[in-house]
Specification:
homodimer, mainly alpha, Arc Repressor Mutant, subunit A, two-stranded antiparallel sheet, DNA-binding, about 180 residues
Chain lengths: ~180, ~180
DNA sequence: AGATGCATGTAATAGGTTACATGATTCC
DNA sequence: GGAATCATGTAACCTATTACATGCATCT
């Protein structure tokens, strides 16, 4: 999936939270961020090197025990700048992965100015997609007969519709929450 | 995404429905199957050649107008066999793509024997995942304070929970429908 | 005659998985 | 002393995207 360097931003985002080793970063994909993104250490270690060469991160050596040398990476000012730029850029709705969820994950503060436009843009996108899917279903499956001769296709389309409905509802709930935060 | 040759099975599945050209197959990813899978012609054309070399498909030339030669591909007995084997194999729950949805898409007949075990297996998987996610949320966000200091993370986790809930409900609805079909 | 769509291909590049490879530390 | 985990790296391979490249057919 020749996406757009998303792993780079994930690593920057994680390093923005706290300094970590490549091993620590790898473990993040087993727990929290692993719910919706994956990466192996064989992808992470070389990328960290390239990111350091680009001066987005730096490392210091930590000696553990007698011999073992850990590399603890830290984000640089340049890296933080690039990360913030990425966070403020509207999520692209292309590939299999949902870049919006990825960005949202890194917005810690419910009062962040980034949130309202992010949510609104996503809501527009998913409402349009939902409308499109419903139209598709109506066109392809006007009656029960079509459903029974392309059963799997109908089920999959219905699933897509329900998924988009859930996505929309979730976004609307966030919008309401945000409005409530503003009153406080 | 070094997945497991899923595009091959999609092409076999589409060719199993009707004979088509590479161009036709490419267009499928703009409409029906495009709701949940993507492929470009630059990936499809070479793959069709490899599949033909492996004798899973064959082609005949159709002349359109004066000069233009179309290649209309057809699935072979060997190709159909491989496709059916894949369809009957439990979906793998690894990558970013949902292989189950892909297989389900190709099951036309609501009375297919494949359906009950497929649905049951998926239901088990998604119930386990839902339980896991709920546990994660309870652990990471025991109170409102944690939510307000990792707001995005909490939202994303909640989204995952709602998505899995919707998935489970959808599967349960299918189970009920299947039981109804058996009575008829 | 020109625009749009049909039709097929290759090349370069990027992203991602699996396997190979090594060694130290910590816990039991 | 042995097992599990920590820790880092490379190599081979596969998958996917973007760009390059070409030419015909149909419709207006």
């Amino acid at each position: 999936m020749a996406q757009k360097n998303r792993l780079k931003y994930i690593l920057l985002g994680l390093l923005n939270t706290k300094n970590q080793t490549g091993y620590d970063l790898t473990k993040s994909f087993d727990s929290d961020i692993g719910e919706f993104w994956n990466a192996n250490h064989s992808q992470i270690y070389p990328l960290l090197k390239r990111m350091e060469a680009a001066q987005l991160i730096s490392h210091r050596l930590i000696t553990v025990g007698q011999k073992l040398q850990k590399k603890e990476y830290a984000i640089t000012a340049k890296g933080r700048e690039q990360f913030m730029d990425w966070l403020a850029t509207p999520a692209e709705m292309d590939g299999a992965h949902d870049e919006f969820l990825l960005k949202l994950f890194f917005v810690d503060d419910p009062h962040s100015e980034l949130l309202p436009p992010m949510i609104r843009t996503q809501l527009g996108y998913h409402e349009a997609k939902l409308a499109h899917l419903k139209k598709q279903f109506a066109q392809k499956f006007p009656n029960q007969n079509q459903i029974l001769t392309s059963y799997g296709h109908a089920l999959v389309l219905r699933h897509a519709i329900e998924r988009e409905t859930g996505y929309r509802d979730w976004l609307q709930t966030i919008m309401r929450d945000l409005a409530r935060f503003e009153d406080e």
